[in-house]
Design brief:
Length: about 290
């Protein structure tokens, strides 16, 4: 079920690019491990998704946002979408790390709970002798040819372990009221995305004014409610394009777009290709 696998040298590195199945909670993009050469450099570069590295052995450094961090075995670092970064292996003790690139609603929540962000990118374990995070990441790589559902489930366990072991973890109790509002908003989106709903309407259902709602929504999920609603609708549309024979205009209506042109523009903005082209590339034959 993997779209592409590249494994050029088993002694130096392995990585997988995951199938482009889309999940709202967690979407794995790619994952792997590498034993770097001295002074091996990646960047300056910008990612479209979250990218987390965990250092299995050795040392290296990360440069981002005008800061330089020196990292060693047992630590990790997070790169956020749109963040410019460069990282280097140590000249004398180059690092061996495993990584995972991902996105999704649950992923953003977990990173917030772990206290990791663009401003605080460094992961340090509360128990340096505990290697479970490393083990979970390597398990995903080692089972990289399993089904997307299985890999996503393993990824959810990994996120929980990241939260539980992070030294910068934020206590959930402090955010219980905000989380209540956000659950109300997400539930409303899940039940009504197929209708012409507005952000004002979602905020009203949550019992908040729009400006305050938009602010705490972005704090919780690192994305505006408008973008989240768009991504949610387009993910549902992609699933219908792959798994049904519905005409494109009916799929548009099914995700809240009465105007097919507006739907096609929104879909292309999200995926980079038109709905018809996406269906041609990904449609599952239905008997």
């Amino acid at each position: 079920m993997i779209k592409r696998r590249q494994m050029q040298d088993e002694k130096k590195f392995r990585f997988y690019v995951a199938q482009d199945d889309l999940f709202i909670d967690l979407n794995l993009v790619q994952f792997g491990w590498e034993k770097c050469a001295p002074l091996h450099q990646f960047g300056p570069a910008v990612r479209n998704h979250f990218l987390f590295h965990y250092i299995i052995d050795g040392k290296g450094s990360l440069e981002t946002n005008g800061q330089k961090y020196f990292l060693k075995k047992g630590q990790g670092f997070l790169l956020c979408p749109g963040q410019i970064s460069t990282y280097y292996a140590d000249p004398d003790d180059p690092w061996y790390y495993t990584w995972i690139e991902f996105d999704g609603l649950r992923a953003r929540q977990s990173l917030t709970l772990a206290g990791l962000s663009e401003q605080q990118p460094i992961y340090t374990s509360t128990d340096p002798a505990r290697h479970s995070l490393q083990d979970y990441m390597l398990q995903i790589v080692n089972e990289g040819e399993r089904s997307p559902i299985r890999l996503t489930g393993m990824g959810m366990i990994l996120l929980d372990e990241l939260v539980q072991t992070s030294m910068t973890r934020i206590q959930e109790e402090k955010k219980s009221l905000r989380d209540f509002y956000m659950r109300e908003a997400i539930n409303y989106i899940e039940e009504n995305y197929m209708h012409d709903i507005s952000i004002e309407e979602i905020a009203d259902v949550s019992g908040l004014n729009r400006s305050y709602f938009s602010r705490i929504f972005k704090e919780a999920f690192s994305v505006s409610p408008q973008k989240f609603l768009l991504q949610y609708r387009m993910t549902k549309a992609a699933d219908l394009l792959k798994n049904t024979k519905l005409p494109i205009h009916e799929i548009g209506r099914s995700v809240g777009y009465d105007n097919q042109l507006h739907f096609s523009r929104a879909f292309k903005t999200t995926f980079g290709i038109a709905p018809s082209s996406y269906r041609d590339e990904h449609h599952i034959q239905i008997l």
